[in-house]
# Entry
Amino acid sequence: RRPPRSTPLYSSAASDVYKRQLLEYANMKRFGCDLEEALKLIEKAQKESLVCTIPKYMKARLVSIQGDPFAGKELVDGVQKENPVIDHTLLEVRYLSSAMVNVKSKSAAFKLITAYIAVCPDDMRASLNQIYALYIMKDSDRVLEYSKIFLDKYKYDACVAYYRAKAYALKKERDEAFKYFDLILNQSKEPMFLAQCYYDKALLRQSATEFDEMKTELEAAFSLYPKINADIVLADLYRNRKQYSEAARWLDSYASRVDKATDIYYNRMCATLSVETGNKEEAIRCYTVLIEKDGANAAYYSMKIESLL
# Structure
């Protein structure tokens, strides 16, 4: 007969360690994008234990990432039938869809999330992922359609308001975009998110006629989250107004966070600023860096150097 539960078998413990190692190796292969090898390791782990559901989850995830979301969903549904008490099984479909958006299977991700929502219509995060997939696909009309349904049901969510603002921006409906950016700015407390809204709002403005508004919003974005790179946009904003000392100050701010010897954006701005202020030597140095670091536009930079010689 079986030994008591308090007496674990060494072979069982060793087997568990072996299976965990297989799954860890599988994850390493998956993140290294060696999906076929990852799938082999997962299937090997699955053969070691017909009871354990974790390998089956991972297999479903991989199958979906490889572009077959409905096959992934069938695998998840199979686990649900085997053990219906595991209430997080269906949630795996939601996670699969997120992974697929990240590997650019956007339309497949949207189909998978939609299939999941049909089963679990009250999962708010799944609805968020559905709108996110449409946002990544730049399907503005459906972003607005699905986000309205979401807001009617759940009232307010900062991410959904942001997707609506960006969708209106893509449709060139600036006033509507501003309305949702302002909604977030009035309700959110997350500095990085607020910075992004100030930054995006500023970029919708016309620098020639709305300089003060742009400056204020970009400075707000920079103060909340410097890494959003509002400073280099401010440098260009001041350059366009020929306020070169202010342009140089903001460019120096950006330069303090990057490698000036390799950063394409720094060298582009520095070259343009140097040309306009008559510093040909510095402009040539920047264009020379750009020829090496931005090869796709090397011919253009070479032409600019020739014009300065």
About this structure: Confidence is low (pLDDT under 50) at residues 1-11, 28-33, 85-91. The longest helix spans residues 10-31. The chain has 17 helices and no strands. The radius of gyration is 26 Å.
